[in-house]
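In practice, a research group might receive sequence data for several interacting partners and want a quick structural hypothesis before committing to experiments. The following worked case mirrors that situation: the sequences arrive first, and a predicted assembly follows.
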Amino acid sequence: MTTTQSTTTTIGGHTVHVDQEGFLTDPDEWDPQLGEALAQQIGIALGPDHRTVIAFARADYTERGESPTLRRVSTGADVPVKTLFELFPGKPAKKIAYVAGLPKPRGCV
Amino acid sequence: MRHLLILGAGTAGTMLANRLRRALDHDEWRVIVVDRDDDHVYQPGLLEVVFGHREPGQLVRSRSAQIADGVSVVKGEIDRVDTDARTVHLADGRHLSYDQLVIATGTSPHPEETPGMDGALWRRSVHEFYTLEGARALRDALDGFRSGRLVVHVTEMPIKCPIAPLEFALMAESELREQGLRDAVEITYVTPLSGAFTRPIASARLGHLLEERGITVEPDFVVERVDEDASALVSYDERSVPFDLLVTVPLNKGADFLARSGLGDDLNYVPVDPQTFLARGHDDVWAIGDASDIPTSKAGSVAHFSVEIFVPNFLEHIAGRRMTHSFDGHANCFIESGHGKALLIDFNYDVEPLPGKYPVPGVGPMTLLDESRMNHFSKQSFSWIYWNVLLPGRPIPLPSAMSMAGKHATEATP
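A structural hypothesis for the assembly, expressed as tokens:
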């Protein structure tokens, strides 16, 4: 709902619109190849488990218009929170949104 | 005769029942409110109980006494809602039918959701302050706390009154200083957020305030469990924060009957249209106050501003007209910071809390995002307004839509 300023950047040969922190502002600009490139930017090599999580996050965003919380990813993709921390170390909810080409999670208010 | 059924007689449900009783035709609509007990707690006062400024009994009044004549009050535990049959089933077997249903059953702490939290240490060295029982137990624990590690902790967002844990940390720091114990106590603020608060500018200002008071912030901490043997919080990424006294805000969830009724999300909040509060997929079910999933603070001020929008929309909706009022997510909160001072923040779905003056631009008397004694006095006098103006649904001279007047937006541009 918040209007974010976006700039254009090139990641892995894709020209995309991103916010100040590098989150895509238009999720439709994403494709799996770009996902790999975004993951590389934050030092993650995507495996099948990562891809399951990313697919859930994108599907959930399409349905609800909001980047999912960690709890929602864990329940929805059926992956324990502990595993999400192993797959996306440090700040999993943010990293999932970043790689999935979704806006930065609001983290609530 | 049509039936408007309101579930929950807390801040939102009470205000709404009183306002709608006046607005609806008595020959056409019957208004019924359901709650499990008759104890309405003035929740902004819970921290005052913690710090011994008020007795628990002073916060409680009869729920039904706050509700206007002409509204029926039903006491009972809600089992489930059958939206197809437009019926609410109570646990004792009674059922109530409705034409329009408003869910206002709020949110509550669930320590049992975090392993080790409500075990052997619960109400001994692990405390919460969102219930009367919890506030009283924490008051006694603080009385005996002379030295060691005080850890203030938020389990997961969203929580009711998201500034309350910050307020607790600041007030505790102030009390300890006054008692000459500050040097003997280490205070840490542990949060799942990346900073002290949810919105960047307020987070920076409040973070600075914590730093000034020597309170360490442990950010991005998603708690996995409480290690009872080591007396420590343990995160999913295996950080450990030991404590002598833990003051936590347990996981908050909406009412269980919402899950049983298929009306709740993964934390039992009712997904609604954030502008109108109509439950998604329904045209006769609404949720207001903390019970809904709207993306703003779970706070009494939000409930109040929501009711202002809800009433005219509801009247349009039942008359078969398009709803023409839209909620902007307006919230404002006082933050007691100790030393007889308080901060005030004012924000909505789209606009950050900003510094400035409130409610009269440039004049105040209240100051936004900065400590002042006037803010403290305003918060102190709020309980009278709550019981005598807000709950009865009397007009209050504050606009429900947020205003940018008197605010300094320049700081908003990084």
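Before designing any experiment, note the following. The mean pLDDT of chain A is 90. The CA atoms of residues 6 and 22 of chain A lie 9 Å apart.
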